[in-house]
Amino acid sequence: MTKLHRSLLLLSIAVGSIQPTAILAQVNLTQEIAAQASELTNTIIQHQADKGSLDRFYFLETSPERIERMKKFHSSYSNGLQQFNFEKLSMDGKVDYVLFSRNLQYELQLLEEEKAQLNFSESYLPFSTQVFSYEKKRRRGAVLPAQELARDLNNWKIQLLDLLKKGEADADIHLMAAHAVQKRIKDCRDALRSIYDFYYGYDPQFTWWVEAPYKGMDSLLQLYSTNLLSRARKNGASADDGSGIIGRPIGAAALKQQLELEYIPYTAAELITIAEQEFAWCDKELLKATKEMGFGTDRKAALEKVKNSYVPEGKQPEMILDLYNQSVDFIKKKDLVTIPPIAEETWRMNMMSPERQLVNPFFLGGESIIISYPTNTMAEPDKLMSMRGNNPHFSRATVHHELIAGHHLQMFQNDRHKAYRSFYTPFWIEGWALYWEMILWDMGFPRGPEDKIGMLFWRMHRCARIIFSLNYHLGKWTPQQCIDFLVDRVGHERANAEGEVRRSFQGNYGPLYQLAYMIGGLQFYALKKELVDGGKMTYKQYHDAILKQNSLPVEMIRHILTNRPPQKQFSTSWRFYTPKN
To answer: To 5 degrees, how large is the angle CA 292–CA 294–CA 297?
Structure first.
């Protein structure tokens, strides 16, 4: 409640115009509004909606028209932030201000980078501006000169054939540049398809003149894109190393920028050191569990026994349900977090296709847990590797990671608390779910050494993700080296390791996504030590408070829960882990 609200209420009490029950209702209403909003809520919602409208209208990402329009748009909102007196904002308002300002500046930076690539990409597609101008007219339904467009398409095809011939000897194109040109090629194809789908069959002249030239042009553009990338790979160090996985390492400078954007105050080298320290802890615990199983120091033998505990074919969903019930019962018994009844009621299961399992060899989750397990179409060795890699002891760490209190509960609460916040970060998404693996381990969720090995396997996997993904993006490791590391150091089945690396470098994941599991988890764990172990909050209070903030960088959650407002010119300073030299 603001000072103004308090003053009005006190005045009303004094003159007898408001009864005590009405006062209480007003207080509750104010608290209810404050729980869901800040002073910037409307601005952020407006920005999201406006951006969506503009993105749908200016859908060609590399067109100069879109770049200039989006620069103007984000700049207007950035300038509009000056209307807010930062020092007078509430805690939530200050957090929203800092993060919204950060996002706007990053969007403007990306647009400047896109603009810087225009001249380069245009040299590889000199007719692209003409293509975009035709599409611009189409958006408002102009009658296009069909014969003239057909003539242009044929001329562009001639240019493309010449470009294809020159490209075979292009020794200058490198991988990052090739990806920039590929984006522009995609935009040309999308623009032409937009035009073709709109007029073909509706406009007789267009249908008569354009069908054959369009189809020929589209095929050539696709061939040009493929050949350009192949040429760039031959020129650089990104050729196929035998794994069949060709990603896009971003380099040290871009990694540093991404870490700063996510408020992670560590270098790539320090993060690798942190992963190695966590790996060392896992090694000690794994040795203890191995001895408990009667295998002495033979970790591989213990791991083999755990892998071979897989359930018979067709029984995996039943096993998942049992593990879900065990984890939720455990969480309730310990009173660790609020679990809304509808969250319990509405989660469900789906099976993963064999094609998708090539990229996701393990579970995926959210409101639905997507089960990775063999089908009749898979080869016998692949079936066995899938079953071994998704055994009950390994799954003990992944079922609650995907459902409750992991991703399903996260997403459920995101839809219900401060839903206007558009500050997505994998360190919150994956860090939260990984944190629960740590907490349940501490509280004795593993029932015996086999469960411990299963849960440790996944924690080692998170450490490995930091090491192999950073080394890859720094240009030190190839995809095949990453696969071998997962097999030799963690104990993955080879097909599952290949799927994991393919997912990391060819999936729709940012370069920091794989390290965000362990690093985000360590952030939540450090904050737990500060607040729960320090006696300031119970586990339930701590966990509920986090879920009511929606997706935020963990350092910002720390500012909120410790009641320390961030500075307007914010820079990260929270060293949540001490890596050893």
So the answer is: 85
Nearest to 163 by CA among 115, 128, 200, 194: 128
Coil, strand or helix: which one is 383?
A: helix
Residues in the chain, total: 581
| Whole-angstrom distance, CA of residue 579 vs CA of residue 581 | 7
Q: What is the value of pTM for the model shown?
A: 0.90
Give CA–CA dist 207/200, Å, rounded: 5
The residue ranges of every structural domain in the chain are 119-239, 257-561
Both tokens of 247, joined, read 């990603």
Is residue 327 within 8 A of residue 408, CB to CB? The reply is no
CA distances from 21 to 17, 18, 36, 262 (A): 12, 8, 23, 46
End-to-end CA distance of the chain: 48
> Residues 159, 161, 167, 169: is their CA dihedral positive or negative?
negative
The model's pLDDT over 146-173, given as tens digits with 9 standing for 90+, comes to: 999 999 999 999 999 999 988 887 877 8
The Cα–Cα gap between 456 and 462 comes to: 10
CA dihedral angle for residue 219, residue 222, residue 223, residue 227, rounded to 10 degrees:
170
- Tell me which amino acid residue 130 is: Q
194 touches 253 (CB < 8 A):
no
